[in-house]
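Q: How would the structure tokens look for this protein?
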Amino acid sequence: MASNFTHAIVRRPSHSVIDGITGSPELGKPDYELACKQHDAYIEALKTAGVEVTVLPALEEYPDSVFVEDTAVITPRGVVVDRPATDSRRNEAELMLPTLREFFSEDQIRFITDPGTLEGGDVMMVDDHYFVGRSSRTNDEGFRQFTEALSEWGYTTEQVPVEHILHLKTGGTYVEDGNLLVSGEFKTCAQYRDGRFNVFEVPDEEAYGADCVRINDYVIMAAGYPAVRTQLDAWGYKVIEVEMSEFRKIDGSITCLSLRF
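A: Here is the predicted structure in token form.
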């Protein structure tokens, strides 16, 4: 069941993006100008995939604010406003609210509240079911609140332990039609191996390429991961590759850069 997306929300990189949170300091700091060019190409990829893109201005005081996916989880019936786990990102969700209210009425908006934490990078939609990572960024209380909100809209949830990486979708993404890319620890995840999915194990050297995003007839992926590209081609998708080098330096992936609905 392919999703029919019509809109995406992105936020421009700030000059302060060079100081974004990173678990890979050995990759160096992002180049701001190159990050902007890569972001431009990402926006063009979204448009090619058939969505109208709302481009929000940069927030200089929030180095990681380009990663809008962690501010909210948008479902076909409503939106859950996240509560990011790190203090430096806590206000990003609140700053997204005016834009969300352009598309959703108040009765379609729910909030994750203290002491819950939830980041959209930990949420993977599989039709009417949502996998939620239990990670350093999303806690049990955040999962409980999220489950309560989604049950109102007729959706179900399932928690997945995330031990060694930042977010659930860092380690693999569902590209619909039953097809799931997995890397690292998720190659042995029992919940992904119970017959629900056609699983492709991404080679360890291409683990970063496991985070892709399906939008209408297209899959957008990071450039430079040939095994992932070959599998997506074999599954019959139209593929768009975009350079992600600067966002990778601050733990960002393809899905992180947009909210899609």
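Residues 96 and 194 are 37 Å apart (CA to CA).

Residues 7-260 form a domain with the L-arginine/glycine Amidinotransferase; Chain A fold (CATH 3.75.10.10).

Upvote if useful.
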